Amino acid sequence: MSKLVRDRIPELFGGQTTPLDDAAFRAALRAKLQEEVAEYLESGDLEELADVLEVVLALAELDGVDEAGLNTLRRQKAEARGAFTRRLWWTAT
User: Which of left, alpha, beta for 14 (phi over 0: left; psi -120 to 50: alpha)?
Assistant: First the structure.
């Protein structure tokens, strides 16, 4: 089985590794994001949610945005459109 793994997995479990170029890495991260989101939705486990965040941060880094920059974008969007603090379920009329 071949898949994108965290940096220390080969050190801990063995196996062979192949570095990916940016395009292949982006594609692998997008697939990994789907995998991690599905795992979180199935389990509700906070460790799975942390995995989702790790993948999101790696994707942002590929676009030249660090964690602080991504959080700035998040805050700007929250200021413009709000966050999810009020737990609103909307129906268009």
Answer: left
As a whole number of angstroms, the distance between CA 1 and CA 40 comes to 21
Q: The whole model's pTM is what?
A: 0.91
E-assigned strand segments in the chain: none
The type of residue at 27 is A
Q: Give me the tens of pLDDT residue by residue for the chain, a chain 93 residues long.
A: 899 999 999 999 999 999 999 999 999 999 999 999 999 999 999 999 999 999 999 999 999 999 999 999 999 999 999 999 999 999 999
Query: If DSSP codes are grouped into helix, strand and coil, which group holds residue 11?
Result: helix
Q: What contacts 49, CB < 8 A, 6 or more positions away?
A: 40
